[in-house]
From TrEMBL:
<keyword id="KW-0418">Kinase</keyword>
<keyword id="KW-0723">Serine/threonine-protein kinase</keyword>
<feature type="domain" description="Protein kinase">
    <location>
        <begin position="1"/>
        <end position="193"/>
    </location>
</feature>
<keyword id="KW-0547">Nucleotide-binding</keyword>
<keyword id="KW-0808">Transferase</keyword>
<dbReference type="GO" id="GO:0005524">
    <property type="term" value="F:ATP binding"/>
</dbReference>
<dbReference type="InterPro" id="IPR000719">
    <property type="entry name" value="Prot_kinase_dom"/>
</dbReference>
<dbReference type="Pfam" id="PF18394">
    <property type="entry name" value="TBK1_CCD1"/>
</dbReference>
<dbReference type="InterPro" id="IPR041309">
    <property type="entry name" value="TBK1_CC1"/>
</dbReference>
<dbReference type="InterPro" id="IPR011009">
    <property type="entry name" value="Kinase-like_dom_sf"/>
</dbReference>
<dbReference type="GO" id="GO:0004674">
    <property type="term" value="F:protein serine/threonine kinase activity"/>
</dbReference>
<dbReference type="GO" id="GO:0005737">
    <property type="term" value="C:cytoplasm"/>
</dbReference>
<dbReference type="InterPro" id="IPR051180">
    <property type="entry name" value="IKK"/>
</dbReference>
<dbReference type="Pfam" id="PF00069">
    <property type="entry name" value="Pkinase"/>
</dbReference>
<dbReference type="Pfam" id="PF18396">
    <property type="entry name" value="TBK1_ULD"/>
</dbReference>
<dbReference type="InterPro" id="IPR041087">
    <property type="entry name" value="TBK1_ULD"/>
</dbReference>
<protein>
    <recommendedName>
        <fullName>Protein kinase domain-containing protein</fullName>
    </recommendedName>
</protein>
Amino acid sequence: MNHLRENGVVHRDIKPGNIIRQVGDDGRSVYKLTDFGAARELEDNEKFMSIYGTEEYLHPDMYERAVLRKPHQKSYGVNVDLWSIGVTFYHAATGTLPFMPFGGPRRNKPTMYKITTEKPTGAIAGMQRADGGAIDWSYKLPHSCRLSQGLRVLLVPVLAGVLEADQDKCWGFDQFFAATTNILQRLPVHLFSLQQASEHCIYVHHYSAVSVFLEEVSSHTGLPQQPLLLLHLGHELLLEGNMKVVNLPHTSPQRPLLLLSFNPDSSCSLPYREPECPITPAKFDVVADYNFTKVIVGVVHQYLRMAKMLHLHRDLLLQGYYCYIMKLRGECREAMNSISKISLRLQSCFNVEQRIHNLGSSVDSTDSSQKLHQVHEHLPIYSSGIQEFQDRLDHLLIEQAKLSETLDHDKRCGLIHAAVVKPSGSI
């Protein structure tokens, strides 16, 4: 799109169907814009009157004339491509169109136009759930959107800026490119909160300090910045004050940073909602049965995705708490070693005290001696408490190993996968 603008070209038919994806040998995807049959040369300050495009992605001014057949003398500028980009972004992110009248956009065209032109500022979607009913406006991406919360927060202002029917209020290309470049230049850091059993993806500039990263972590998780413990590959990740985000280890959804907070947290509900299942057709109908089957396969795919994600979260929970238990066991060993050293030094002090006493010295050290003896008497109590805690940790490790073995034999994911493959093959 930037290349087109630099060369003074307007595409006029941007939609998901005109974007192809090429996967390179390294596994990376390159997305390419195609179908320039409706494109024409147009500078930023120029206008055009001809109508091209696909109606669901048309700017409302063009929709009024091309679809509703209402004549008007409005002209169109390069910003009409931005509206199409906004609808495409929303469709790609959610799987649905942002503006949906009851019955669908092609069956209820006057309401479709009404939704796009009467959309409140800042709204990014509108849906009519009943014939002649009110429009439900949305200012955020739906729960079904698979984008991380970190990316949603950055994308919503872009959608709100380009999905503006008033061409004078709509973002310009310079503002659009600045916002999207800012997103693309950020580094995604994958994070898994153990207490919340939830994954997060923090988008932060590579040159930012880790303090900025921790602020973003606190904002996304709702947890206070201190005290937080980050684990990576079984070890505590130590963050120094002058450290930059670029120095953080590489992360992925399968190998995120594991986050543990020492403050109680109540946000532990599962981040999933049951997919909506359609009503089974009451009578045999080829078209209805075909559409019903397609929807059901989609629902089962959602369940499969949820099951796989829960399995991954289960593994991350087991891994995270195993690492934390091992960290605590290490601290227990260090504490026991410290107690042994203190006990030896105290015994040495008592020996010196006895020698001084035998020499008949008149130094008054009664108070200090009593305190040292009290400490010495309490050391076995401390040792016993630490040993008891260590025994509990060992018991937890045994229980976790048993649980892991039981979960390894869980075949429910495979059953859901089989349920998906069979109907998909028949369709």
